[in-house]
Amino acid sequence: MCGIVGYIGKQKASPILINGLLRLEYRGYDSAGIATIEENKINIMKVKGRVKNLYNLDGIDNLKGTIGIAHTRWATHGIPSTQNAHPHSDNSKEFAVVHNGIIENYNDLKTFLTEKGYKFYSQTDTEIIPNLVHYYYQKEDKDDDLKVLRAVKNACADLKGSYAIELVTSHAPNKMIVVRKDSPLVIGKGDGENYISSDIPAILSFTKDFYLIDDNEFAVLTRDAVEFYNNKLEKINKKVESIQWSATSAEKDGYDDYMLKEIHEQPNAIRETIGSRLPEDGPCYFEDLNFTKEYLDSINKIYIVACGTAMHAGLVGKNILEKLCKIQTEVDIASEFRYRDPLINTQTLCIFISQSGETADTIAALKLAKQKGATTLAITNVIGSSITREADYSIYTHAGPEIAVASTKAYTSQVVLISILAIYFAELLESVDTKIIKNLKTEILKLPAKIEETIKVDKQIQEFSRKVFQEKDIFFLGRGIDCTVAQEGSLKLKEISYIHSEAYAAGELKHGPIALIEKGITVIGIITDPQLVEKSVSNIQEVITRGAKTLIITNQDLPQNHFDTIIKIPEVNYLLSPVISVVPLQLLSYYISKEKGLDVDKPRNLAKSVTVE
Ligand code: AGP
Predict the structure, then answer these.
(1) Residue 337 has pLDDT above 90, yes or no
(2) How many angstroms separate the CA atoms of 285 and 553, rounded?
């Protein structure tokens, strides 16, 4: 979803801004634009379509300004067009802004400003912002250093909704102002130059030192300093956070696509997730957690709340938490949870999973859980992301930047992290035999090597993808924990290959979906739970009888002649099997998408981090 970049320093701003936007392309967008300031004049250039189209604009090379703002837009209000692209300026071109988020009361504000004589040239909610700032700026009678900031603050007081705003103005051509509420924004600290971005990877090649700005805080950037203010415009101090990710970790590194790179990065990502959390002698250890047996004994329910793939990781987590900790665990979709008055209280532990830590629904669900008195724990990949600033506790997957829209290493590292968390709880609760715990720990440590082994099915999967890439529907079946992987495999396929696909609990087939099975249809079965092998095989047999072609992902010894294709994966404790069995499914959706000639990393209509509701 929309991306923001900003630069203030000694260098020509436009190449830095465009470079930053290119690094944000993965977020999904439909138009792009930049604004720089030169000799007190704001120059705005925007295009519909790809960021690289900016290079074709007349005069783009002549922009000499060393201060600028930039944006990739993902349309919410108004069609994708050059007119609707950001930056937007006020009528007199004194203020230019880029904005992520949604201004919910923009219609009321537009009416108010129209009555005051302002005109609007786009269909966006954003265009009201520079005009509102202009309106308040005109009303300021005190002409001091904070005049622009006061106007921005007053404008923000009228805005309802979510926003990360970056502003430049001809009234203070050596400054940039930013503010955020419920939308991500970080400030990168350089030497004689400073950066702004909605996403760390966009400016990682320039700096690893960041300031994290909180909701309703303002920052005023000059070349040499960044000043922070609260919403009463009192100065506040911020410490610099250093990010460990390397700039190359956010690049393709020889792979054709980020998704393929990230699939291959899974062994290392999981090594990082494990880190020092599984010491050889002694219980699981989380630096940032201090749960006690008394607290865990007191909770009667765990809720796992997330969206999309992160929710699928939560489904695996439910199985492991219930098995090891004997605590009832519910999994919910964040956008449902937040509106259905869930039954939670001080005895509920709510776990929120989000790769980006910026998903609007997940953050709103977390805020609701806090209001209801639950303890909240965030599992995320992004240090300092919004979710970590809301949650009582945060633990990190440390999987490195995930750029492809289709989530791969985030899923496997989330499953591993929640497995370690379940063991940590079980050790405190003494809820399960120590031998079981020991075995699981050993198995977790072997996961990276087993994924490396699994990735070797690549050629077999590629071959299979050539046979099925033109299909209209593909079904995924599994029982128990394999059903959760079926759901993830199906989501991945839809996302990047645009093939309609459904995932079902195999036992549910007879209750309706089997009516859809006809000659030649492809059914993918996941079979890893030793206790459910026979039952799963019977279900697959039912679709074979009705003419389905079958691909089976399994670590069990199954009769070869029953199925069209069998992909054999390494054996592992069934509770952890999703970390392995998902890999061939990730590769399958990847290769199908490639066969179809689609843009794997930037699928249509999708954004990497869904920062609006
Ligand atoms: C995954 O392939 C998807 N792109 C999507 O479902 C994603 O997992 C979901 O939007 C949640 O994102 P988050 O983990 O950043 O909160």
Answers:
(1) yes
(2) 33
Atom of ligand 1 nearest to the CA of 356: 15
Cα(606) to centroid(ligand 1), Å = 10
CA of 99 to the centre of ligand 1 (A): 22
Q: What digits encode the pLDDT tens for the residues 81-116?
A: 999 999 999 999 999 999 998 898 999 999 999 999
b or e along 457-494 (b: 16 or more beta carbons within 10 Å of the residue's beta carbon)? bbebbbebbeebbebeebbbbbbbbbbbbbbbbbbbbb
Tell me, using a 6 A CB cutoff, whether residue 554 lines ligand 1: no
pLDDT of residue 247: 65
Question: Does the 456-595 domain belong in CATH 3.40.50.10490?
Answer: yes
Q: Which fold has domain 3-249?
A: Glutamine Phosphoribosylpyrophosphate, subunit 1, domain 1 (3.60.20)
Return the sign of the alpha-carbon dihedral for residues 340, 343, 346, 350.
negative
pLDDT band at 248 (very low <50, low <70, confident <90, very high): low
Number of residues assigned to the chain: 613
- Fold match between domain 3-249 and domain 456-595: no
pLDDT above 70 for 1: no
**What is the maximum span of the chain, computed from C-alpha positions, in angstroms?**
85
For residue 239, the model assigns a pLDDT of: 92
Q: What is the pLDDT of residues 290-305, one digit of tens each?
A: 999 999 999 999 999 9
> pLDDT at position 432, please?
96
Our answer on whether the CB atom of 307 is closer than 6 Å to any ligand 1 atom is yes
Atom of ligand 1 nearest to the CA of 414: 14
Give every CB contact of residue 248 below 8 A, 6+ residues apart in sequence. Answer: none
pLDDT of the residue at 202: 83
Domain boundaries, given as residue ranges, for the chain = 3-249, 252-432, 456-595
Tell me which of 208, 261, 549, 608 is the catalytic residue: 608
Looking at the structure, give the CATH architecture of the domain made up of residues 252-432: 3-Layer(aba) Sandwich (3.40)
- The number of helices, as runs of H, and strands, as runs of E, in the chain is 17, 25
- Closest Cα to atom 9, ligand 1: which residue? 308
Distance CA 416, CA 268 (A): 12
Whole-number pLDDT of residue 79: 87
In terms of pLDDT, which residue wins out, 30 or 412?
A: 412
Question: Is 2 an annotated catalytic residue?
Answer: yes
- Catalytic, out of 2, 307, 325, 483: 2
Contacts of 396 by beta carbon, 8 Å cutoff, 6+ apart: 379, 380, 381, 383
Q: Please give the number of the atom of ligand 1 that sits closest to the Cα of 308.
A: 6
| Catalytic site includes residue 350 | no
